[in-house]
Amino acid sequence: FLLQQTVIYTVPLILVALAGVFAERSGIINLALEGIMIIGAFVGAWFVRIMQEGGWNEDAAQGLLLLALVVTAAAGALFSLLLSFSAVKMKADQTIGGTALNLLAPAIVLFLVNIVFQQNTLNLRYDAPSWFMLFQTDFGFERKAKLGLVGDLLLNKTYLTTYIGLLIYVVLAVILYKTRFGLRLRACGEHPQAADSVGINVYRMRYLGTSISGALAGMGGFIYALTTSNGAANGDVAGFGFLALAVMIFGQWKPVNIGLAALLFALFRALSNVYTGIDLLVALNLPSTVYNMFPYIISLVVLVFVSKKSRAPKAEGIPYDKGQR
Hints:
Layout: H1 2-26, H2 33-53, H3 61-89, H4 94-117, H5 128-132, E1 133-135, H6 141-155, E2 158-159, H7 160-178, H8 180-190, H9 192-197, H10 202-228, H11 240-250, H12 255-274, H13 279-284, H14 288-306
Antiparallel strand pairs: 1-2
């Protein structure tokens, strides 16, 4: 069960951490990942609820899930344009811009939930596990032994979003490091003047990088809400956007390292849910709040040791001026 919970938390973490990579590789610091996740979770929950109330058939629930991911990606990309516009066009401080969006997102969500639904939390009409879980069977011990560890993780009480998230992660990692587009994007984050000198439109690449970042964060927010709180949206994603930033820094902006870092952080996050089933941890007799703090404490400890050796893109956070050389 611990491993299943770890996988559930890993998928949104790697997507949102990769979102940060795309923005920062283009030269934009995206501290607004938390806010974009909140927007994605809200838009996804609202869209699914509208479809459910409109008579969407449960037999086509996986199709609805795919549509919701597309809608949340679009919402995240649109919301991220506020950051890219302020950073690229207005040349505003990107740290302040990202922080402002993190404050704006929960305010917008809570305002709309209160105005439209007259409540504090937007819930799906039907529970997410009953509608969207691809494999709901809890296999017996003998069946699990035949499937093996990997088979059990992928086929036992699994959401379609697990496969989609991992596939997107692999595809975008390849695009970032094995394609001309990825090379141009990374050039804009390392030396935009050199990129501009060979005909690359730095402004456009930074808009694209931030929009891809917003789309990934929007999907990550909806996947997090769907798999951990039955798709409910209440203007909060438990600091997962900031955890993803820590994963990105710990992974040194490299997709493979980010995947491993996400597994580590997700493991500690999962412990806060399942520690009561682990005899060793129960014997310690620690308050539950201690286990809830684990992933955030680990992120602080990791950043203390990694920050000095981290090698961020050289031009990240620096507004690009075409006339400057």
